[in-house]
Write a structure and sequence with these properties.
Elements (H helix, E strand, L loop, with lengths): L2 H26 L4 H22 L10 H9 L9 H7 L17 H21 L5
Helix pairs in contact: 1-2, 1-5, 2-3, 2-5, 3-4
């Protein structure tokens, strides 16, 4: 095992914490739609960064999910299936955390964000399972 394996594992662990948080908040405090959306975005960002480390691709420290998927696509084009879906959720990275940006999401939008976070976490988890 090398240092990159440890970094991948740590990114995936942090992503799992965000995933569990998103699901728990959606069950116990569903009106906290901004918090759920933020954690879904974080799951995807951290999971994609884990996969970039796994693939040994350098990346800038950004929140742009499209950029991260584009980089991954240079070595694994199967990630491209998620490109359009992450476009909407990228807006939950930074702006949503501040009081001057208030959003209200429908239950359908929250469910879609949770589903996408689950799908990408599983997709990448299957790819890096050899070291987890």
């Amino acid at each position: 095992m090398n240092i990159n394996d440890d970094i991948v594992r740590l990114w995936m662990m942090k992503a799992k914490h965000d995933l569990d948080t998103a699901h728990l908040v959606s069950i116990s405090l569903p009106e906290y739609d901004d918090t759920i959306a933020f954690h879904c975005q974080q799951v995807i960002e951290k999971t994609l960064k884990a996969y970039l480390v796994f693939l040994d691709i350098d990346f800038k420290p950004v929140h742009d999910l499209g950029y991260l998927i584009t980089l991954i696509g240079t070595k694994d084009p199967s990630i491209d299936e998620f490109y359009d879906a992450v476009d909407e959720i990228s807006r939950f990275a930074v702006q949503i955390r501040y009081p001057d940006t208030i959003i209200h999401l429908t239950q359908k939008e929250i469910s879609a964000a949770l589903d996408l976070a689950d799908q990408i976490f599983i997709f990448v988890g299957d790819k890096v399972k050899l070291i987890m």
